[in-house]
Every structure is written in structure tokens, then in C-alpha cells.
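Much of what follows relies on a compact textual record of a protein's fold. Here is one such record, which you should read through line by line:
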Amino acid sequence: MLTGLHGVVAILAALRHRAETGEGQYIDVAMAAVMMNMNERVHADLSGVDLGAERPILGAHDAPFFLSPEGNEFVSPMSLVGSLTFPFYLAAMRRPDIADDPRFGTPELREENYAALHQIVQTWIYTFDDMASLDAQFDEAKIATGQIRTVAEFADGEWATSWRATREVSDRVGGTMRIPGPPWHFSRQGNELPPQVPALQGEHNGEILKELGFDDATIAELVSCNALVQPAST
């Protein structure tokens, strides 16, 4: 998916180049190159820099998870270990003294004593009456938080509903199915999304092969020898 997105970006850049110069181009997008491009710490690896415990957060599993005063799980994208983000937690807790604790003086030590450091923050969280008051304190210290939801819970939430983040489409067998809506809106689109009917696997084999120059006899032969996946009956 990331390679496809980068391919679209490359096409747009090439169209801009054509508009400015009149010159068209072929585009080559490599999946391996995309993965290197998306790696947040590749610059350090390529330069031979040992970041030690100063690792960037590469996913939610590297971010600290906590329990709210009500007992609900939430996550912060800011590391408890990193030197640039550790002070934000101290500011939120009004606990600059923690920086002098010999267990937490360096990223390596904070990593080594992570459970103890996490417990200090969690204990402080429990001093609040609710998540709203805690979040206000986090906001003051420039720490973002996020509630953990299932996909279904998120899709039924206020934002997803107002954005029309999902849509109902035909399942081609008399019912409907819920799928993600387009992740972009156009200013002239209005409130209604254009109709969409999901294609069955192999449904457009013939059309595509004809566009590629195959004749009816060749297509029929491919079908007869099961070289093409045939669409299920609707």
C-alpha cells in the first residue's frame, strides 16, 4: 500500500514537471526503496550511528500504555525513555526531582528500570478524578494521548460518523456490507458519496484482456483451461 501511495505521489510530481517543461517521463517505484524511505531511523543505521536506548517510536507497541483514572487503557505517542520526551512527563507531574533519581539518569537506565518509571507515572495518573482532568494536565505539558478503541467502536464514533468514514454497499447477494469510505472529500462533492458496487474476483477479466489486445477465442481458451479465476455467481 505504501508503494502504491508513493507511486501516486510520483505521478503527481511527474505531471507537475510536464506542466512546467512539456516533458513526460516514465516512473519506476521500488517497494524495497519505499520501505527504506519510510524507516524513521534509517539515517542512523546508514551512518553507523548507535542510538542505544534513544530509539524512535516506530509503532504503537513502542509507546507507553497507561490506565486512565476510570480504568480504561490509553496510549501516549511520547516515549518515557527518550531524552527529548522524558522531561515532558516530569513537567506534567511537577516532578523535576525524578531526573536526579540514579535509576533514570540516562536512556539506558530508564530502559533498564522502565517498570519502576512506568509505575511512578501510573500512580500519578490515579490521583486524578477522571480522564478529562488528566488530559488537561497532559495537554499543558504538550503530551498527546489517545483512547484505545476497536475498529467498530472508532467507526461508530462522533468523528467517523460526521466524516462519513464508512459506507454501506451491496454485497452482490441481496444484502449489504460496510466498508471504509474514501479518505478524502472534495469541496464540490456535497454530502452524498457516489454509488459504489464492489467487483467480484475475476468479474472484469474479459474487458481487461480485450483492452490488452486478446481476442475472444484466446480469452475463451484461457477460461476453459482454468487459467483465469471466474467470478462467483451473484
